[in-house]
Amino acid sequence: MPPNTETQTFTIQNGLTRLDIQERVKQGDALFIFENKVYKVNRFMKKHPGGELAIRHVLGKDVTDEIRSMHPPRVYERMIKHYYIGDYIRDNNNVTLVSGAKTRTTSTHNHDAPMQIDWQGGMSVKAFNNEIEQLHTKHAQDIKTYTKGQKNLTMLEIRQEFQQLEQELKDRGMFECNYWRYAKECCRYTTFIYLSLWLAFRGYDTWHFILSAVFMACFWHQLVFTAHDAGHNGITGRVEIDHLIGVTIADFIGGLSIGWWKKNHNVHHIVTNHPENDPDIQHLPFFAISTRFFNNLYSTYYNRVLEFDAAAKFFVKYQHYLYYLVLSFGRFNLHRLSFLYLFFDKEVRNRKLELTGITVFFIWYSYVLSYMPSWGMVFAYVMISYMLTFPLHVQITLSHFGMSTEDLGPDEAFPAKQLRTTMDVDCPEWFDWFHGGLQYQAVHHLFPRLPRHNLRQCVPLVKQFCDRAGLHYYVYDFATGNGVILGALKSVADQVGLMNNVAKHNAGVWSGETLEEKN
Ligand code: HEM
């Protein structure tokens, strides 16, 4: 990457305080703080490989931990120097308590912490509601215990602990990628696609085609984990090569845009679970994981208002029942988002290549479909192969939907924020292949560049770090995690009911009618 010449024409300052920086940002300068130094990236921001928006969200802030965890050392040891404009003068007010528990206890309503539930499937609506009531009580207790155990470390102290953790992980070789794990995974992918194609081309009975569609879904489901690594430049560590691997897997084989995914995902890692900023939780009209979505929020990612209209009111009211059903259509939505990105986004790298990839996908997939004996079977094949990828969408939403959506301000330490907004899902080790190892999302959010296959081994060290830093580490098994999500969705859904009743009541008052009469 060529150095940004803007630093050469810019006067190096002796020191900038937080106020100076904020003033300059207001005037349009793109400044951020890294290790007590101030950097200016006005022109570089547009060329930033992690996307412009990722930087826009952190302007004026100290992003030392974000930079260290998102970039390879060459970025923060060498490249960043070109953008230096002066030292940061820390005033005493900047030593802020960021333990988070203080703020977390202020509201139990807004998903300050996930709710626990021993979830059992197939229960009646009444039993479901009872479970949810219990969930709220447990949730409140959980917060109490947490507050008692809180250590109230300063942001600086948490940061020091976090850097110690990073060093420990480096010393243990956790950042090294073990390519044998990919070799093993490739065998699994090949088996799935071989079985799928063999059954499609040689099959003659209905169940052959259905099974073929199931294997196709398994193939796509598993491939996504490697596409994810490529999107994080975590396979070879070289942006261009990993991008090409990503395009091959996501676009040519999966029919989805890796460019869209990277843009979306990089922002998600910086502003995790922020209702206005994180596209991964902006799913209106189908889901709202915070009551803040009731206020027609403006999405900084989509650049439009997310209207809480009549459709949203309907779907959100029943979102805890519709959760799995809606997610089973997730892959169709990913096509839509990919096309919107490739056709309408101004800054698309390799637009033609990605469009070619997706065209190739539709050609080979249509070829497979041409072996189906009837249109009915074509329809069934598409639905099965697409909808059965839904465990992946559950897994993705599971880590965040039940977690805090609050904005605790710019002084919240990066690890504190990631552990507040993300939870891990535990499973027996032999089942790691199913979740791709990415079920340890909290660990992944702390260190997005750490190879996915090593995440499990990092868990004990992350737990120790949390103990030292007084942070809570949320980890549930898959079933409990699902209960947490459903509980969180239900608590927001109930608010829609309440809101509707208040609206009815107000309308009644104005028209002289009582609520009972109106009902
Ligand atoms: C002068 C400052 C910066 C430079 C030179 C820079 C450079 C880069 C480079 C070269 C990459 C690709 C990394 C790779 O090779 O894998 C990258 C990715 C990224 N950057 Fe920056 N960056 C800067 C500032 C920032 C800031 C302030 C943020 C936000 C806190 C940020 C967020 C990201 C993200 C989210 C990614 C994607 C990481 C991933 O793929 O996992 N960058 N940046």
Automatic annotation (TrEMBL):
Keyword terms of this UniProt record: Heme, Iron, Lipid metabolism, Membrane, Metal-binding, Oxidoreductase, Transmembrane, Transmembrane helix
Classification via Pfam families: Cyt-b5, FA_desaturase
Membrane topology: Multi-pass membrane protein
UniProt protein name: Fatty acid desaturase-domain-containing protein
Pathways per UniProt: Lipid metabolism
Family named by the database record: Belongs to the fatty acid desaturase type 1 family.
Species whose genome carries this gene: Phascolomyces articulosus
Higher taxonomy: Eukaryota, Fungi, Fungi incertae sedis, Mucoromycota, Mucoromycotina
Residue intervals passing through the bilayer: 355-372
A biological process from GO: lipid metabolic process
One Gene Ontology cellular component: membrane
Primary site of residence: membrane
InterPro entries assigned: Cyt_B5-like_heme/steroid-bd (IPR001199), Cyt_B5-like_heme/steroid_sf (IPR036400), Cyt_B5_heme-BS (IPR018506), FA_desaturase_dom (IPR005804), Fatty_acid_desaturase (IPR012171)
